[in-house]
Amino acid sequence: MINESKQTLRVLQIIDDASIGGGQIHVLLLSKYLLSMDIKVTIATASVGWLVEQANILDIPVCPIDISNKITWRAFESIHRLLKIQDFDVIHTHGGTAGFWGRLVAKILQHKSKIIHSYHGLHYLNIFQNRQMRQRLKNILFKTIDQLTLNVTDHIICVCLSDYEKAITANVASPSKTSIVNYGIDIVKFSQPINKEISRKIFDIAPTEFIFGNVGRLHEQKGHQYLLKAFAKVSDRARLLIIGDGDLKDELIKLADDLQISDRITFLGARSDVHEFLSAIDVFVMPSLWEGQPIALLEALAMGKPCIVSDVDGISEVITNNVNGYLVKPKDIAGLTQAMNQSIDNPEVLKQLANSGVNTITEKFLAQNMAKAIADIYLTQII
């Protein structure tokens, strides 16, 4: 048992950005449930943002850092100061930027801490033919950095089998010191949706409207252009609401105009009220081109929302076609259209998919089980 150790385990979680996202939600839930096991947790992240606000609510100590994927003295000093002053049994880095700086500085300081690194989707391994040469070179650099820092890493955690296989193939992880620990979510929160009528008022949705919802950065990875093109062929009885912000915002708004569907699509921007959003929609749609294991999908399933998703990577480890959701090939506009129209016309099928989705979460993706598995990794490394 965790609390039978001779002294309290001290763990530092490092993530570069504090704005809301899958990695930040994971760090918060992991920290929350580690605390319930009498493990002392500190979070190092940007000085302001969603993660800082939520950590403060839970009384989790936060150390402000200022790091980026640019090589600067400021970034080095930000981590160096923290690791030199404070002593941790485990340093757990999340994502490429934190993984680079955390592991580099710990090595320079010859830290006695055990170094754990989590991959939250290996995005740099998904290089498409239309990528610019500059981006290709950056991806090669990120891969090389992960290969070099593997030597100073005690253990790697991948959030799904797909990431594990990609990491091993790319030599950024080794089978002997890599584990798969699926994401977990707080089922108590998402199994208690707020009243649908109330939630719809928040987003200006009429009670009888059929609503498709999407949550994700407005980025190439998330496949929004294919979603919009598919939705243009969906029954005009439906509307589409999208939560998220990103570089493609203006391009996607123009595409909606060109497809003459602007009156049926609402871009809501970045928001933190995903719980209310999921309560308001009828079907969750995620047409990603690649993924690790998206927390937004797990939250939608826990909320009892039928899901239409791309048959890629970690998504297909969660969704079984026609059992707990619909799987569609990536970039398959016709397939997306068919699945969305099918959803509108088959409420009884949607109910069955929703029930199976909730069962999937309770059986495989609970936050407390995720935290216990990671705590066991910490202890295995310490002992």
From TrEMBL:
A GO molecular function term, named singly, is: glycosyltransferase activity
Glycosyl transferase family domain location: 196-357
Note the Pfam families from the entry: Glyco_transf_4, Glycos_transf_1
Gene3D superfamilies from the entry? Glycogen Phosphorylase B (3.40.50.2000)
The lineage's top-level taxon is: Bacteria
> Which residue range or ranges hold the Glycosyltransferase subfamily 4-like N-terminal domain?
20-187
Protein name, as recorded: Glycosyltransferase family 4 protein
